[in-house]
TrEMBL record:
Pfam families hit by this protein: TetR_C_22, TetR_N
InterPro entries assigned to the protein according to its UniProt record, in alphabetical order: DNA-bd_HTH_TetR-type_CS (IPR023772), Homeodomain-like_sf (IPR009057), HTH-type_TetR-like_transc_reg (IPR050109), HTH_TetR (IPR001647), TetR_C_22 (IPR041674)
Organism: Glycomyces niveus
Domain HTH tetR-type: 36-96
UniProt keyword annotation of Lipid metabolism present: no
PROSITE patterns cross-referenced by the UniProt entry: HTH_TETR_1 (PS01081), HTH_TETR_2 (PS50977)
Keywords, ordered alphabetically: DNA-binding, Transcription, Transcription regulation
Name this protein carries in UniProt: TetR family transcriptional regulator
DNA-binding residues (ranges): 59-78
UniProt keyword annotation of Nucleus present: no
Length: 222
């Protein structure tokens, strides 16, 4: 993972969400609300610290201190800092799709190109507002426990897009479509990441190019 941090002048905030992230990243699920609140604080603390110091310098001790919990509480729910980062990545994927669904429900896109533009815009907003998001960038493995494959954040996003296509439009079950959506997602992620390398607030021209490239690819393939 990249250890690049965001300039101190940018202080993004995000309201806590009820989801904890990928359940496979948790040693155990919190049952009581008090335990659930501790897990949320740990994820919030991990996000802030990743934003400030990067993933490589992140430690479970620092997370415990920032979250105001005992170090034993961290290991009660997470095996190490990687599992915390995995849970945080999944939490952000959940949040991304909640926001995307809200946009689609409030103003349904006129066509698929408009839908792609909204999807990229929401992804850009996550970069700008969610602490640690651009450092995690959801590109590393978030399910290392699977023996058959290494699943990335891009894979999870593609799977959820495919599920949405099936649910909203009855489209699915085609291996070629699965491959096409996965390539489009990975390409869009990479180009948005490039836009934020060029400009801490996101290079406008590069973000527009991301939409054009993804739409052109989908138009050729679909």
């Amino acid at each position: 993972m990249s250890t690049a941090t965001v300039p101190a002048a940018r202080q993004p905030t995000m309201s806590p969400v009820s989801k904890f992230g990928a359940t496979h990243s948790l040693r155990r699920l919190p049952v009581q609300e008090r335990s659930a609140a501790r897990v949320r604080r740990m994820l919030d603390a991990a996000a802030d610290l990743i934003e400030e110091v990067g993933y490589d310098r992140l430690s479970t001790t620092a997370i415990a201190q920032r979250a105001d919990v005992a170090i034993g509480s961290v290991y009660q729910f997470f095996g190490d800092k990687r599992s915390l980062a995995e849970a945080l990545s999944q939490r952000y994927i959940d949040l991304y799709f909640e926001r995307l669904a809200a946009r689609f429900d409030a103003e349904p896109p006129a066509d698929w190109r408009a839908g792609v533009e909204v999807a990229i815009d929401e992804y850009v907003q996550m970069y700008r507002t969610a602490p640690g998001f651009r450092v995690l960038h959801l590109a590393d493995a978030i399910d290392p426990g699977r023996a058959d494959a290494v699943t990335t954040g891009g894979d999870v996003i593609a799977d959820q897009i495919l599920a949405g296509l099936a649910q909203r439009f009855g489209i699915g079950g085609d291996d070629e479509l699965n491959k096409t959506v996965t390539v489009a997602v990975e390409t869009g992620q990479a180009l948005v990441r490039l836009a934020f390398r060029r400009d801490p607030e996101g290079c406008t021209a590069s973000i527009a190019e991301a939409g054009d490239v993804v739409c052109d690819y989908l138009a050729r393939r679909l």
